Amino acid sequence: MVFVRPVTVIFLSVTLLSIDFLGCSGITAKHGNQPTLSNKNHSLSAREKAYSYFCAGYFSLLDRDWENAANSFEKALQLDSSSVRTIQHLATCYFQLGKNEESINYIEKLAKIKPDEFSVHYTLATLYETVGKYQKAIEAYEHARRCKTTKLDYVFLADTLYRLANLYMNENMMEKGIECYQNMFEMKLVSEPVKIYYEIGQKYFEKNDIKKALEYFLKAKEADPKLSFASFYLTLCYDALNDYDNAVKEAKSFLEKEPDNWVMHLALSEIYGKTDNESKRGEEIEKTKALLKNSIAAGSKNPKEYFLMCQIYRNQRKIEEAIAVIEDMKLIPLDKETMRDVYFLLANLYYEDQKFDRVEEELRMTLKFDPEFHEANNFLGYFFVENNKNLDEAIQLINKALKAQPRNGAYLDSLGWAYYKKAHAEGRDDYLIMALQKLLEAVQLMEEPDIYEHIGDVHYSLGHWDEAVEVWGKAQSLYKKMLNNETQVKNITAKLERIKRLISLEETGLKVITNHREVGSGIQP
């Protein structure tokens, strides 16, 4: 029996319920000859009316007129509530109309009438799964697998066990899922066990149970040594378990079969990076870059390739090349969310390249695609603040970002800094107090040197020199612990030296005044 993957089989399974359906002629034969009406005024019996509506519904069904068919079958069912065929047809009609809940209602009725029929419970389970009622789907699949089946049902039984296994695994009931797969092996419903081992491995990998994932990927490789993607996942598993020798071995095994797979070259470069083999790491990065470059030049429509190529250039500090890649990416078909990300990335790249005239333009485009994108709202707001422009709009933008993430320390820092700039622009100390409040909230959420530096600037402006010295000292200490912060260390050190001189001069001036008063008080008038 060939293994059946979980495709959409609901229409097939609903149709399965209708395999034994008879047309009106069949039902007529079953009912016997219909009585001849001897009098025009003689009213039809309820059974005859039900039969009439059923026939009308059946002919509408043959014409695929699902709406009228359902209406006729509903009328037939009102007159004959025990008609199994009418219920089956109604379930089919409502499914075809996309009214899954109504279809489920009728399949549930059938399940009560036919508790031992596999096809009914299998169909009910697939419908439950379609509408996201996963626990009910599990119960219905379990009921179906207990029903008596024939060889004609085996394809659907295989699908039942497969779907049930996936549902259990998605609910973190891994052992129950494995048991379903094992049942498929025992019943010889699977001709290629490697696929099952591979998918079990994937499930464990998704759940971050790497050791179990490794176990099943090894089984998959043993069952079919030619399955290259077993080596792909084995590489990732060994890497996650810090077994870098085996990770490299599996990566090379995979690349022997698929030398142009840039994903594996990238993964191998990262493994070499973890083992401090910079020479090999560099080689793999260059191979990745060459493959991506060729793919993009050939007209790749894969956004991931453009983003990764950009990231490689960015890491190599080749910002102009990174920008060129993303500008080219604009020319391929992209969905709205990806277009938003493209413009946002360009804003960051132009900012890094100090092409500030382009930053606002790209951020405006980002927000055109997604006005609620909080990262772009904060970035544009902070960009305005840094350039002392559009301060009111900047505050609105940053507040919009904070509405989405009220406990984001970076956004609170942006708002505090905006109030600081507005205070200086308008000469208002109340904005300095508001700035200090927001900055103190920010530093409680994230201890970053630039936030401490901003707090020091506000204290300095308020005349709180001792407090400024304290927080600038914290900023200086944190800057020194970070790489590539020579400029920030130099600036904060200059601030500290300047304020310490001012404090010293102030203290000296006070001492002179005090001594003068003491000497003066000893002179007799």
Task: Give a structural overview.
- 77% of the residues lie in helices and 0% in strands.
- It is an all-alpha fold.
- It has a domain at 447-514: Tetratricopeptide repeat domain (Serine Threonine Protein Phosphatase 5, Tetratricopeptide repeat, Alpha Horseshoe), CATH 1.25.40.10.
- Helix 15 runs antiparallel to helix 16, helix 22 (391-404) packs antiparallel against helix 23 and helix 24 packs antiparallel against helix 25.
What are the salient characteristics of this protein?
single chain; 525 residues; mainly alpha; Serine Threonine Protein Phosphatase 5, Tetratricopeptide repeat; 0% strand; extended; disordered C terminus
- Output the number of helix runs: 27
What average pLDDT do the residues reach?
86
Low-pLDDT segments: 1-22, 25-42, 512-525
For the report, how would you describe the main beta sheet?
Answer: none
The secondary structure category is mainly alpha
For this structure, the CATH topology of one domain is Serine Threonine Protein Phosphatase 5, Tetratricopeptide repeat
CATH evolutionary superfamily of one domain = Tetratricopeptide repeat domain
* Global outline: extended
How would you spell out the order of helices and strands? HHHHHHHHHHHHHHHHHHHHHHHHHHH
What's the alpha carbon Rg, rounded to whole Å? Answer: 36 Å
- The N- and C-terminal alpha carbons lie at a distance of 121 Å
CATH architecture of one domain: Alpha Horseshoe
Number of separate strands: 0
Report the sheet-strand fraction: under 5%
Share in helix: over 70%
- The CATH class of one domain: Mainly Alpha
